[in-house]
Specification:
By secondary structure, the protein is mostly helical. It is 77% helix and 0% strand. The chain has helices spanning 3-24, 29-49, 59-76, 85-104. α2 (29-49) packs parallel to α4. The chain is elongated.
Length: 105
């Protein structure tokens, strides 16, 4: 498994593991929909990365992998942020955006 795929997989699994608590923290249907939509985008990007050949020495990919690692660490500690759903949505959006950029390489 390539480093890029491993990074996206870890990002996806961190969000998947915390999806239930993130959804429970949503105060409105709009918040709930935002979390679900970003999670689906992240999941789809992960599946797009499977069996994809990445140029691991690509500078852009290395920057995205570092960003993904940082966001993954934040998502793993998401329980400390559940009181502010806008932060949670922001983290899931970051995760989906980064994974999408990696999948697009």
């Amino acid at each position: 498994m390539s480093d890029a795929l491993t990074t996206v997989k870890q990002l996806f699994l961190a969000c998947q593991t915390n999806l239930t608590v993130m959804l429970a923290a949503c105060k409105t249907q709009e918040d709930h929909d935002a979390v679900v939509n970003q999670y689906v985008e992240l999941r789809d990007s992960y599946y797009e990365c499977i069996d994809k050949a990445f140029k691991e020495n690509d500078a852009v990919l290395q920057v995205l992998e570092a960003q993904a690692t940082s966001v993954t660490a934040t998502v793993k500690r998401i329980n400390t942020q559940l009181g502010d759903i806008s932060k949670v949505i922001g983290y899931v959006t970051q995760a989906a955006t980064i994974a999408g950029k990696i999948a697009a390489l």
